[in-house]
Amino acid sequence: MSNRSSISEFLLLALADTRELQLLHFWLFLGIYLAALLGNGLIITAIACDHHLHTPMYFFLLNLSLLDLGSISTTVPKAMANSLLDVRSISYTGCAAQLFLIVFLLGAEYALLTVMSYDRYVAICQPLHYGTLLGSRACVHMTAAAWGSGFLNAVLHTANTFSIPLCQGNALDQFFCEIPQILKLSCSDTYLREAGLLILSCFLVFGCFIFIVLSYVQIFRAVLRIPSEQGRHKAFSMCLPHLAVVSLFISTAIFAHLKPPSISSPSLDLVVAVLYSVVPPAVNPLIYSMRNKELKKALRKLIQWTLHHQL
After folding, report:
1. How many helical (H) and strand (E) elements, i.e. helices and strands, does the chain have?
2. Average of pLDDT values for 286-310?
3. How many CB atoms are located within 10 Å of the residue 69 CB?
4. What is the pLDDT of residue 103?
5. How far from 150 is each of 107, 111, 209, CA to CA, in Å?
6. Which segments of 67-209 are extended strands (E)?
7. How many Å apart are CA 300 and CA 53, to the nearest integer?
8. What is the pLDDT of residue 1?
9. Is residue 197 predicted with pLDDT exceeding 80?
């Protein structure tokens, strides 16, 4: 990492100029963070403790909640601390670690969302082969592949990004270390190498999105052929939340990394980053549990058990 000696720290985006607004941002982020911790923690605990939920769909959902907890814990606590203490700095090593973790966790989450679309496709379109195609070993292998692909992607992008010489200062127009913001500090054409990798990654993301869309086209065709209205409602309730999560996550992440510089601004970049890095971990538990009777039942049992043992 050739620019390690010239830059010892980065300055993150100041979310507000006045002390009152800084404290407001702190409390807002704290509320979102606690909601994400509570929601994802409840889902993880409910799935782990209820043997009725030891199925492929809930195994993938448990891993999704773990990734959500990791990704929001990578960015939000640092932003909270900066707002509370009225500071902006993050060390060079801390920035590299933050970038690695966010790329790793969000990349693995997207790969897992792709796997989850395949799970829904098999469950609805090929139910007789579900146990064969999605046995316990296959689920573990697919989940490990999702985590592994996120890790390799993060290693590649982090090493490449921090090998680029930086000479445009050390101020980032974002509340966490994000690749496009670091590339803006580049002083040579070497940034084109990482830009090319970003474009390649976005093409792979788009390819996965096409796979997800095609899976859901087949799912909806199969669902519409179900004679029972209750059966159609159950199938849609399993699929629509996943599709909503995927759409929000992909659209905002691709826009953040591929938008033209002409429309870039600190406020727009901030909103887009919040939409793909903060909002999904906070709302995923609500989206996945709101229309899922089995999960709601398990959560009620968990809460009742907790309250009973506290009294």
Report:
1. 11, 2
2. 76
3. 19
4. 93
5. 4, 8, 16
6. 89-91
7. 14
8. 47
9. no
